[in-house]
Sequence to fold (305 residues):
Amino acid sequence: MNNIQQKATTIVLVDGDLLLYKILLSSEFLEEKTNKQGETYHSILIEDAKAELVYRLKSIVSDVRKYFKSIDYKLITPLGALGDTNFRKKILRSYKANRKPKPLGYEDLRNHLYNIVKSDKITPHLDACFSFPGIEADDLLGIYATYLEDENTNTVIVSDDKDMLTVPSYNMKLSSISTPEKISKTKAWRNYLIQCLTGDSADNYKGVPGIGKVRAQKIIDQEIQKYCDCILPVEKLYKYYEKAGISKIEARKQFIVARILCKDNVKIDENPHNWVNLGAWLSSLRLPKMDCSTDVPKKRIPKIH
Fold:
């Protein structure tokens, strides 16, 4: 706790999608039934799952309060957009193509999460739960964690996803009690560069063949030393892709899908709403003749007071 800079407000950002998945994929909430034809099938014990959702959110807040001694707490649970609107899939068709369908009971439990916003079931209240067309819950975590943190506010991301280690913020595990880890801007960028080389099998982008985590760490540290700056431009990694016979365009796709959106990747207009302008960001990447270069309409992003 001595390493945590205590501030008046702590904003707890919970990976909503991951939380729902962990609950629904637990055998504890599955019930086996038999139909008239004698075939077995599973149903979800949805009321039990709803109670578990509230319990876990309370536990998360309790864990955070052990380390962050603030006057005010806010609890936010971003969710991923429904449907096949993820902008990364327009850039890299293989992105998350290996994923299974959403678990049984997902929509019911997702709706329940929306319904308990501002309710008395959780203290402090669940201040906001939302999704945003075209982007993932990870992106909303990254945007809010970097946008809302200031001299009076700490932001804490609660997730087991290693992608969140590329976002400058405090980070805590969702699956178990863990000491908060402060991810600095330089550490977050280093983690991102490593992932650009290794790829991510869970998200189905490959990185550079033959480069694992240990080798990637050595490469990045050597490149940083040669460049004499901790914020090494991602373009310095092109040569490793080209040695493996992969073009710069294909490498660039990997760099984009690996990047979790932060405040620097979006256009935020304070008055009268916050806006995310994905179109401008994607266009700025100057990817030649790619579907992702088309403009994405501006959308309102909820403002947290």
